[in-house]
Design a protein that fits this description.
alpha/beta; 11 helices; 51% helix; 5-stranded parallel sheet
Amino acid sequence: MTTRVVIVDDQAMVRAGFAALLAAQADIDVVGEAPDGAQGVELSRRTHPDVVLMDVRMPEMDGLEAARRLLSPPPGVTHRPRVLMLTTFDVDDYVYEALRAGASGFLLKDAPPADLIAAVRVVAAGDALLAPSVTRRLIADFARQRPAARGRPALRLKALTERETEVLTLVARGRSNTEIARTLVLAEQTVKTHVSRVLTKLDLRDRAQAVVFAYESGLVAPGE
């Protein structure tokens, strides 16, 4: 199956380079490019891509606002692409907010070409791009700066069973499904089922959002 991609970046050379690289892959189709967030949202609404590569900082409308509009569309708009944020910094306040909005992860602009191709495929498959260790460090850094933000999400934890809470805790600590299965003495498929139920009950899109939620709810504290 071909993955449809839109590239949103204010630098024409960046867009051209990413487009050429991705279009050369048999399973990826670049369906459009845009120079700012507003045009990126409009283009995505017309072309219905599977993945949007979204630069963080752009004129007119930045990538954060554009990601919010794509991931929380107005009534009547049903298409929600996966959004992969592009940034020049590995820890960035905009990236944190984008993850909260539902972005599937982030990629450094100077990442090797193979990483970009792999990132698009991972995100298109419905997985969060962030490696567990990167996720944990990123969210912990910002959760440490926002201790007051954790009150309201804590109430939603009551919807989880004890086992689901254990699984969410381990996800937030950067454990893979295989590691969680080993820790809890469960089959890996059972862990996947628990993760899926956690995401559904908490109305979260993927593991990246689950990690954000775990810190903001106080389930996991920075530095643990």
